[in-house]
Structures are given as C-alpha cells and as structure tokens.
C-alpha cells in the first residue's frame, strides 16, 4: 500500500509540475497580450519569432514565482489558482495603465494594491467590492491550504521545503536584476535593447517581464564624470557668492506668504487638435493668469498621471529627467529612506516661514505623510482634518473651492509668513459619471467620452481660483501664488493624440502671481523644477546658491525632460548647448547627483 501511495503521489507531483509549466507559458503570453493592446499577432510574433529568447527567460522568472507560491500553499491546485488570478489582475491593470497613462505597470505600482480608497474611487463600489472579495477569498484559501499541507507526507514535505528555499533564493537573486554581474541580466543583455528613455517601448521590446525587472531597485542617478568633494565645493563657492550679491541688491520688503497650488489634471483641452468645445471652460482662468508675472505652459513628465513626480520636481528643484529611468517614483522609492531632504520647504523655513501641506485625500497615497516629514513640513492637513470638506457631486472629491478656503484660513492667521503647498483632488478621474449635466458641449466623435464633464471640472476650478486670488489681494501680508496643472487627464482618444505633437500631451497650464508686482506678464514655457527659483526672486525672500544655479540653467534651457528639450525657442530631441551652457548644466547635474546618490557635500547649499 505504501508503495502504491508513493507512486500516486509521484504521479500527482509530475502532473502538477507539468501544469505549472503550461500555466507559466500561457501567463507570460497573456502578459505580452496586455502589453500589445491584446493583439494576438503581435504577442505571437514576440514569443515565437522576434524575441523568443527573452520570452523564455520571462517564463523562467514566472516559473520561479509560481513554484514559490505552490510551495507556500503546499498544493499545486491552490498555488496555481493564486498565481493565475494574480497574473490576470496584473494584465488588466497593465492594459488600463497603458490606456490612461501610456505607461506600463512598474514594480512600485504594486504597492497601490493597499490604497483601498483610491481603488474604490477609480473602480466604483461594485468592482471594488468584487475585487476585495476575490483578494480575501484567495488569501483565505491560501491560509487554509497551508494549514492543511502540514499533514503532507515527510517525503513531500522535504520536496516542498527544498522548493521553497531554492525559489526564495532565486527570487532574491532576481530582485537584484540591475546589478552588473547578475546572470539573468547578462542573459537578457545577449539580445535585449533597453530603451530607458521610453518605458513603454522598453517593455514592448524586452517583454513585460524584462521591462518589469529592468525597473527593480536601482540607484537614483548614475555618477557623473568629475564628481568629487572639491568639485561640489567649487560650485557652492561660485553660486553662494552670486546669491550674496543678489541679496544685497534686492529690495528688503516684507516677507510674502508663498502658496503652491498643484491642480490635479488641470490643462487646456482646446489646445489639442480635434477637441472642439463651446464655451471656453478656462475663461476665468485666463483672466486670472493674465494678472500674473509669469504664465504659459508647463512641461509635465507624464501623460495621464505621475502627480507625485511633478510634485517632487516642484518642491526640490531637481529634474526627473536626470534620474535613472528605473527611479520611477522618488516619493516611494527614494525619499522614505532619507531623514531630511532639501527643498523649497527647508529653504523658506530657514527664513522663519511656517510650512503646511494640504491634500484633500488620504495621507498614505505616495507615502506623502512620510515624505512631507522628510521635507520638513510643520503640518499636513488631509481630507479628515480639513475644516472645509464640501464636494460638488456625490461621485466627486473635496472641491477646489473648499481647498482654497482651507489655504486662506491659514494665510489670515496673524503669525509668521506662510508657505502652503496644496495638492488638489476635485479634478481627479473618473469623469464620466461625476456630473449629471455639463455646461460645455463637444462636437465630433469625442463627444460623450467624459471630456465634457472634465471641462466642467476645470471650469469650476477656474471660477474658484479667481475668487481665491481676489481674496489674497485683501490680505495684510503680500502673497506669491504658483499655480500649475500636474498632467493632462488620460481621457483623450488615440486618434486625437496621434493628430497632435507628442509634447502637446505633456503641456499643462501654469502662472505665478505676486500681489505686489504689477509688471507685464511674461509668457514662458517652463519645467516645474524651476518654480523654487522663481519664488527666490520675490521681494522679501532671500535667494540661495542653489536657486541662483537653477536660475542660470533656466535662462538657456527653460524646460526639459528625457528626449524633450525647449531650447532656442523650439522643441528639440537633443539640445545643442554651447560650451558655457554645457558647463552650467553639468554643475546642476553634479549638485543633483550629490544629494540624490552622492555624499551630500552640498547639504548647506540650499
């Protein structure tokens, strides 16, 4: 009998193993389908014609993952079920992200699975509850299977433990994919052509698994040539002297309140060819922006998302374009490891400012609570602690009008000058069912696709913004307001995006307003990491060496990201800088590297 049972268990073991191989092969093909817009032709050519070696390497990685789950569950059936459902959800999420943001899923995105509030708002209650039921059912099944597996025979337990240890070791090794001597990376390098400047193409050319591995943990920046303590000190001495000179010549007026307003998905839909709408949803905004000292378009790193990255740039003065492409989200990948990090917050706090962040949503999103502590904010007001919490619709978020009132309540307090950083939520997707009626009508094929409700959203924002600016004029202390949209909403059809230049989908609106400055408005294109330098020019605020360096780079290169440079009044794939300009740009690059991945010699530079 024991012999027969042994034969049966061996038979079941081999059947389970063969089933795992088949499932892994099919699941890798499925992930490739999600990467290729569900095109059977493209996915088949990738797997069996164009990139077969990379496809098989991806199958190996997925097999390790599958066998690890199987060994934890102690059951091929339960382990494979858990694996398959997880892969299905991953493929759907990848397809949706590509559709809305033209970006694939990154390893850091998996942390979003615990952001229940955001998932509920995006999916809606029905799909969200279904998702929760599936997740808890799988976890419960896995726990039950593990408990039941403790009764397996000693022989199967030995096989299971060996499999668990080996697969765990392999997963740890695979997680170091970006180490130069990693054997899996070397195997991929035989045929892979990595495209770091375009993650969408990177995944397309190396497969979902290859692209995913490429974005695992990595240093924030590559070490630039010429980096040393002496080089950093030389740069600091040069620009600190310029800052001292500017501060001596600057008017010593009253310190103004400074307000950052990063408006969710705020942009001008009428700038896109193929979008025909009446009336103009930004009528009020245009009137407000015309009162500013600067206005124009801001270059956003992403289309349809990437809020935290734009926020990172605007607060730190550092460019995402100089970071390693795998550093997809500094807020979650880099800043939580830092006890402190220089920013406009720390610069103003050295000048007796009080700094408050406001976000009408939860504190865990993008680890903002931790990140804001790293930046040195004195307080963080969220959706639960806001005094004003009105919404414009039952399906919407806290309104911008409420958020602006929250800002004004801080500015009206008679105390130290304030730096208030507001990240709004009213205009966040989804738009389709947000309002029963929109005052803005579309014509053509794009009608009724959520764009009309989006137009209503930004019109409400414009109206509230106009009222907010009027209120700041009545304050005793002067006010500087920097307002910008973080990115376009991911709601435009592919044919509309195809009819426009690529950079158009990355240009949002911005303006800088100073209640004391009545000089003519300057029309400019800008990157958000220059905002601190614009604030540093204000009367009553002392500039720093770093802000002066930023200002010099801004003078010849007012906007840039990877593969997008606004140089010599035109958009270029590469900027042909002069020798003098190149030297200044390298100084900026060295300072950023020093703080991101270097020895932080320049800590006192900010």
TrEMBL record:
Membrane topology: Multi-pass membrane protein
Pathway: Cell wall biogenesis; lipoteichoic acid biosynthesis
Keyword Hydrolase: no
Residues of the Sulfatase N-terminal domain: 256-532
Keywords recorded for this protein, A-Z: Cell membrane, Membrane, Transmembrane, Transmembrane helix
Transmembrane residue ranges: 12-31, 55-74, 81-102, 122-147, 159-177
Keyword Protein biosynthesis: no
Protein name: Sulfatase-like hydrolase/transferase
Subcellular locations according to the entry: Cell membrane
CDD domains, A to Z: LTA_synthase (cd16015)
């Amino acid at each position: 009998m024991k012999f027969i049972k042994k034969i049966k268990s061996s038979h079941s073991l081999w059947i389970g193993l063969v089933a795992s191989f088949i499932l892994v092969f099919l699941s890798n093909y499925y992930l490739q389908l999600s990467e290729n817009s569900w095109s059977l032709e493209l996915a088949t050519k990738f797997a069996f014609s164009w990139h077969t070696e990379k496809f098989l390497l991806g199958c190996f990685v997925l097999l390790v993952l599958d066998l690890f789950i199987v060994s934890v569950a102690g059951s091929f059936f339960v382990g494979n079920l858990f694996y398959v459902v997880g892969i299905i959800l991953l493929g759907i999420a990848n397809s949706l992200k590509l559709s809305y943001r033209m970006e694939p899923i990154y390893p850091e995105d998996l942390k979003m699975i615990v952001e229940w509030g955001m998932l509920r708002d995006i999916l809606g209650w029905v799909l969200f509850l279904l998702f929760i039921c599936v997740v808890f059912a799988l976890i419960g099944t896995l726990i039950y299977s593990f408990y039941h597996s403790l009764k397996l025979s000693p022989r199967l337990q030995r096989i299971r433990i060996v499999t668990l240890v080996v697969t765990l070791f392999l997963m740890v090794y695979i997680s170091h994919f970006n180490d130069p001597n990693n054997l899996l990376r070397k195997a991929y390098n035989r045929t892979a052509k990595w495209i770091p400047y375009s993650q969408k193409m990177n995944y397309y050319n190396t497969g979902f698994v290859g692209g995913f591995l490429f974005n695992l943990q990595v240093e924030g920046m590559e070490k630039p040539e010429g980096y040393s303590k002496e080089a950093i000190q030389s740069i600091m001495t040069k620009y600190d002297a310029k800052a001292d000179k500017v501060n001596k010549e600057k008017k010593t007026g009253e310190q103004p309140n400074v307000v950052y307003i990063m408006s969710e998905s705020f942009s001008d839909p009428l700038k896109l060819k193929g979008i025909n709408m009446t009336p103009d949803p930004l009528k009020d905004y245009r009137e407000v922006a015309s009162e500013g000292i600067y206005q124009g378009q801001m270059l956003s790193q992403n289309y349809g998302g990437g809020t935290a990255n734009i926020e990172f740039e605007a607060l730190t003065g550092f460019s995402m374009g100089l970071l390693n492409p795998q550093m997809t989200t500094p807020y979650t990948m880099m800043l939580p490891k830092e006890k402190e990090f220089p920013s406009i917050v720390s610069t103003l706090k050295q000048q007796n400012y009080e700094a408050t962040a406001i976000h009408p949503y939860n504190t865990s999103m993008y680890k903002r609570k931790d990140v804001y502590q790293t930046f040195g904010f004195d307080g963080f007001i969220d959706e639960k602690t806001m005094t004003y919490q009105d919404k414009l619709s039952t399906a919407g978020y806290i309104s911008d009008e409420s958020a602006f009132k929250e800002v004004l309540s801080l500015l009206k307090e008679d105390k130290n000058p304030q730096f208030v950083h507001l990240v709004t939520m009213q205009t966040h997707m989804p738009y389709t069912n947000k309002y029963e009626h929109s005052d803005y009508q579309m014509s053509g094929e794009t009608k009724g696709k959520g764009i009309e409700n989006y137009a209503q959203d930004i019109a409400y924002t414009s109206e509230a913004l106009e009222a907010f600016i009027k209120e700041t004029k009545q304050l005793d202390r002067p006010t500087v307001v920097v307002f910008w949209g973080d990115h376009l909403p991911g709601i435009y059809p592919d044919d509309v995006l195809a009819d426009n230049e690529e950079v158009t989908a990355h240009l949002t609106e911005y303006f800088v307003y100073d209640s004391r400055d009545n000089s003519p408005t300057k029309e400019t294109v800008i990157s958000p990491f220059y905002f601190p330098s614009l604030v540093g020019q204000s009367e009553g605020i002392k500039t720093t060496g770093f802000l002066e360096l930023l200002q010099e780079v801004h003078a010849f290169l007012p906007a840039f990201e990877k593969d997008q440079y606004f140089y010599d009044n035109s958009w270029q794939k590469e900027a042909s800088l002069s020798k003098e300009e190149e030297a200044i740009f390298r100084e900026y690059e060295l300072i950023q590297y020093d703080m991101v991945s270097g020895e932080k010699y320049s800590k006192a530079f900010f």
